[in-house]
Design brief:
Elements lengths: L3 E4 L17 E2 L8 H15 L2 E6 L4 H14 L4 E6 L3 H14 L6 H12 L3 E6 L12 H6 L7 E6 L3 E4 L14 E5 L6 H11 L4 E4 L5 H5 L4 E7 L3 H9 L3 E3 L6 E3 L40 H8 L4
Helix pairs in contact: 1-2, 3-4, 8-9
Length: 311
């Protein structure tokens, strides 16, 4: 069975892209589920899948986060990875879906968990806001703050991978991806016209899909008058090749396999190696140029591995 991917909110579970993409398990809050039931559900996931990788936003309520750690402690297991992410809600939902796609491939649970840092570099996530007066997660200058109080103002904000902010207009643009991607749009009260008519063509978007606006988006962006968007890699073969191109190592503190310099299960930083690293060894710390993964199509054997069930 594939490694189980779990989330703390149903908004983080986007529809699967194909019949092979599994759903994610929902880890409910203490208000919605007693501890005994939470222990039973997690034990069942471990019995069925062997390992569980749980994702939660950095803004998760403290009680919910404490519940996750309590469940892991009471089960006395090292087979549960708890990963917090600073991505906006829509971007985090895309990251979760990409790891759901990869969970059925031939990657170990440790590689899947540590791949979250790598893949997050390839998700360009932002929003169009009617006000940035309460935006705290992206730097906002005094001029933008002042313009927020002017009726009819709109701002385009990119939170990841590099913060950007511009006032919406015909000539306004955001620095976008240098690779072919699709766009997911979550409509809110703010008009999405600039996203679909200006941003998408400028970024060379191949297709625009729509999803419901996550409930946590208003809190993350500091206003309910927004429309959220995210550009991402939709192709499982490209995602597979990105992860497979990074050197795998064994964690120095636990037995898990990993890529990059941080273990997804025990969260320990790995000490640097004395010997020189291969070209893609640091890919989990920063993105590999997209051209490295567009130079040639996958071979037949690589395509089989990309869709082959994991152990």
């Amino acid at each position: 069975m594939p490694t189980a991917i779990a989330v703390t909110s149903p908004d983080l579970v986007l529809p699967p892209t194909d019949p092979q993409t599994p759903l994610a398990a929902l880890l409910q809050s203490p208000d919605a589920q007693p501890l005994d039931s939470a222990l039973v559900d997690m034990h069942r996931l471990l019995e069925q899948h062997g390992y569980v990788i749980a994702f939660c936003p950095a803004s998760i309520p403290a009680a919910h986060e404490h519940r996750l750690h309590t469940v892991r402690s009471l089960l006395e297991t090292d087979r549960i990875a708890l990963i917090k992410s600073d991505l906006p809600p829509l971007g985090l939902a895309i990251l979760v879906r990409q790891l759901r796609q990869l969970s059925v491939c031939d990657f170990s649970p440790g590689v899947i968990a540590s791949a979250a840092r790598l893949l997050s570099h390839y998700i360009h996530t932002g929003a169009v806001l009617n006000s940035v007066a309460r935006l705290e997660r992206v730097p906002v200058g005094l001029t933008a703050h002042a313009r927020s109080w002017m009726p009819g103002s709109q701002f385009a904000v990119l939170a990841n991978p590099r913060p950007q902010l511009v006032k919406v207009g015909p000539a306004a643009t955001l620095e976008g991806p240098d690779f072919a991607c699709e766009l997911l749009l979550a409509r809110g009260p703010a008009s999405p016209d600039w996203i679909t008519h200006t941003l998408a063509p400028a970024w060379g978007i191949k297709a625009v899909q729509e999803a419901a606006l996550p409930a946590d988006s208003a809190t993350w962006w500091g206003t309910g008058k927004l429309t959220e968007f995210a550009a991402y890699l939709p192709d499982i073969a490209v995602l597979y090749q990105l992860v497979a191109s990074v050197r795998r190592e064994q964690c120095r503190w636990c037995p898990m396999e990993l890529i990059g310099d941080r273990c997804g299960f025990c969260a320990s930083h790995q000490p640097p190696e004395d010997e020189p690293a291969p070209p893609h060894a640091a890919a989990a710390l920063g993105p590999v140029p997209a051209s490295a993964h567009r130079a040639r199509p996958l071979t037949r054997a690589e395509r089989r591995r990309a869709i082959a069930p994991g152990p």
